[in-house]
Design goal:
The protein has about 170 residues and is an alpha/beta fold. The protein has 5 helices and 10 strands, in the order αααββαββαββββββ. It folds into 2 domains: about 50 residues, no CATH class; about 110 residues. Helices cover about 25% and strands about 35% of the residues. The protein has a 6-stranded mixed β-sheet. Strands 2-4-6-8 form a 4-stranded mixed β-sheet. A hairpin with a 2-residue loop joins strand 9 and strand 10. The model has no long low-confidence stretch (mean pLDDT about 80).
């Protein structure tokens, strides 16, 4: 019995697949075609491109605070994502220029989007108007004591669209 087990172990050991050393006789391009891992140059290039064109990540929000009747909302506050507006009467605000907004986004690319929350804590209606190169899409008014969510999008090197998604507490979608 012992001899049978040893013989069986020898046969299994002989048939067991072994790890073979890397063959260095194949040219690198042929090795890639044969299923070997590709060269890392393309991966390094892709990672470098991502780094150079990196979009801002969530967590870099900042708060812009405005009061009075008429203001120009600065690009850094629009891209920062949170604007608090307070006025004792209705007001009309203008966005910064599209060029300034695009320049405030690190590595901005066409098609990139960013959220903008605007809280109207005042007693009057707030109306938002687009600056040079900024296209306002939908209704751009926020009622008193309401918050509006807008979606900004880079549409060109000097062009931005800002679309109103909805407001709280009314929940209006436009």
């Amino acid at each position: 019995m012992f001899v049978l087990i040893r013989a069986l172990a020898a046969i299994v050991g002989f048939l067991r697949p072994q790890i073979t050393p890397v063959k260095t006789t194949i040219a690198p391009t042929a090795a890639e075609m044969a299923g070997a891992m590709p060269t890392q140059a393309n991966i390094v290039g892709s990672v470098t491109d991502l780094k150079n064109n990196a979009a801002p990540v969530f967590g870099n929000f900042n708060l812009g605070i405005y009061a009075g009747v008429t203001n120009t909302l600065l690009a850094k506050d629009i891209v920062g994502g949170i604007i608090r507006r307070n006025s004792a009467q209705s007001n009309a605000d203008l966005t910064d220029t599209a060029t300034n907004i695009v320049n405030a986004i690190p590595g901005a690319v066409v098609g990139q989007t960013f959220p903008v929350w605007i809280g109207n804590l005042g007693l009057g209606t707030m109306t938002l108007t687009g600056g040079t190169g900024v296209t306002m899409v939908g209704t751009a008014t926020i009622q008193p004591t309401s918050v509006g969510l807008f979606l900004g999008q880079v549409t060109g090197s000097a062009a931005v669209s800002i679309t109103r998604a909805f407001t709280f507490p009314s929940g209006t979608v436009l």
